[in-house]
Design brief:
By secondary structure, the protein is α+β, with helices and mostly antiparallel strands. The chain has a five-stranded antiparallel sheet with strand order 1-2-3-5-4, with helices on one face. Strands 13-12-15-16 form a four-stranded antiparallel sheet, with no helix packed on it. Strand 7 and strand 8 form a beta hairpin. It is globular. The chain starts with 15 loop residues before the first strand and ends with a strand. It comes from Cellulomonas fulva.
């Protein structure tokens, strides 16, 4: 196993104070800096000094320009600045996402179906936004999805992106486990459906806790993975709580024939929304401009043809997420809401006769009245939301004594912050000592030990992600045949409730 190099020296940047290293990559390192004005913590991605050839400079410049075009989207990492350090290395100043990203989470915890669906819809809207701007990502995977301070997934690393008009091209830096067959061919060609495949493969990893064609305990080298991706059927996730309609969505999105997949990331997002509706979960909005499609909630447990989940339907309003117990985004102004009288749940009190109606006249006598119409629409919707909130409050107060759980409570209910919700710290004082036989013993300190703490660790390598394992004690031994001249590991603390360190600690020996 190839040992990973140590971090490069952080550059001196005017107006920034270096704090620590966040991550190491094949072509760049990422550091945490504190910006002086405006004062905030930022992530700075710095190209390695040994990689400063014309091609990589061009890739770095392309990434800066592409991310700048897309930074307005809530599920794409924001870029603040791109420049050259005094030593000539290019760098990007980006939004710092302090919470654990998907790469840290998918092997360490069991992520609920509801959260995976929510992440999938939001990432689908991010990918669709990139596609509408003429950009293919080409490297969607858990490691390229960070988590913002507010819990939103944020797509990053457009370093090998291409324009949709050019399709294929070189695949340097592409990650095999999440790549579609057409990008692994001798003459790779890809389009929007290639990103659809990689996004679905990422969601599969979140559900299964492994990459899609990985065999636990088996041969999982590059050659074996490529062969399975090209020829083997997609295995089931192995989770009983994954509904058949969600497995069907993944099967279609990861078809080996691009023409069978969803034609766009938006179509995949709508298919995931339909699964949410079928499960009676709050339907996550697709964050797209001018995207009015609404989905009809179906019966619990299915009944909806998944292959037809993206069909345009007549005007149907989705039950408001606020009424379903979704506390995730209580400030979002939502559209007209209808309530199904047959649906289970608390009875709703009819609004007063003088309540503001939620409908507006459709026709206006003159085109010049457009601005007035828009103003009345905003006022009416806002007033309607206030009235609806009051109705819901009365209904919930009337049923506060009920102890029956509602669908989705365990996944969406949020209350005041408690000690159990605090960020899990990273291990400290990680040190490695090499023995006479060439093996290396790493030890570390748990700064806040809790009952039943365990530790998730893995050897960092130049290619791919580390294979992680759990140990009960703050020490681990790396055999001589894996240690090489230098060996680096990462380690996280895992609590009894399966929460883990927001950022793993890293050390080399």
């Amino acid at each position: 196993m190839t040992a990973r190099r140590a971090a490069s020296a952080p550059p001196t940047l005017p107006g920034y104070e270096h704090l620590r290293t966040l991550g190491l990559g094949g072509f760049a390192d990422v550091f945490l800096y504190r910006q002086e004005l405006p004062r905030r913590e930022v992530a700075v991605k710095v190209l390695l000094a040994g990689s400063l050839d014309d091609e990589l400079r061009e890739r770095f410049q392309t990434e800066a320009n592409l991310m700048a075009q897309l930074s307005h989207h809530p599920s794409i990492v924001t870029i603040y600045q791109a420049a050259f350090a005094a030593d000539g290395r290019p760098y990007l100043v980006m939004e710092y996402c302090s919470r654990a990203g998907l790469a840290e989470r998918y092997r360490a915890e069991r992520i609920s179906v509801a959260e995976v669906l929510r992440i999938g819809v939001r990432l689908a809207s991010a990918v669709e936004t990139a596609h509408r701007a003429g950009i293919l990502h080409r490297d969607i995977k858990p490691a390229n999805v960070l988590t913002t301070d507010f819990g939103w997934p944020a797509l990053t690393d457009f370093g090998i992106a291409a324009t949709t008009g050019h399709g294929g091209g070189a695949t340097v830096g592409m990650s095999i486990p999440w790549s579609p067959p057409e990008l692994l061919a001798d003459h790779p060609r890809g389009d929007e459906r290639s990103d659809v495949y990689s996004l679905a493969a990422t969601l599969y990893s979140l559900l299964a806790g492994r990459t899609p064609f990985e065999i636990p305990g088996g041969q999982n080298g590059a050659q074996q993975l490529v062969a399975r991706i090209e020829r083997a059927p997609l295995p089931p996730t192995g989770r009983e709580d994954v509904p058949t309609q969600l497995q069907a969505v993944l099967d279609r999105a990861m078809s080996k024939v691009p023409q069978v997949r969803y034609a766009s990331a938006a179509d995949l997002g709508r298919a995931l929304q339909q699964v949410e509706a079928d499960l009676r979960l709050p339907v996550t909005p697709l964050d797209l401009l001018d995207d009015p499609v609404a989905l009809e909630p179906g019966p619990v447990g299915g009944g909806q043809d998944v292959a037809d989940a993206t069909r345009l339907r007549s005007i149907v309003a989705i039950p408001d997420a606020q009424a379903a117990g979704d506390q995730e985004d209580p400030t979002r102004v939502r559209g007209p809401v209808t309530v199904d009288a047959q649906a289970p749940g608390p009875a709703f009190v009819a609004p007063a006769a003088d309540a503001v109606p939620l409908t507006l006249p459709v026709e206006l006598p003159e085109e010049e009245a457009d601005e007035q119409r828009r103003g009345r629409l905003v006022a009416a919707v806002a007033s309607g939301v206030v009235v609806l909130a009051a109705i819901i409050a009365i209904a919930l107060a009337a049923t506060s004594g009920s102890t029956d759980p509602q669908p989705g409570d365990s996944d969406f209910q949020q209350g005041p912050a408690t000690a159990a919700q605090e960020v899990v710290p990273a291990p400290r004082s990680v040190e490695g000592k090499r023995g006479d036989d060439g093996s290396v013993v790493f030890t570390w300190v748990n700064p806040d030990p809790q009952p039943d703490d365990t530790y998730l660790w893995g050897i960092l390598t130049v290619t791919g992600e580390p294979e992680l394992a759990v140990v009960p004690d703050p020490t681990v031994a790396v055999p001589a045949d894996q240690a090489g001249d230098e060996v680096c590991i990462e380690v996280s603390i895992v609590r009894a409730d399966r929460r883990s360190s927001a950022k793993p600690a890293e050390a080399c020996a």
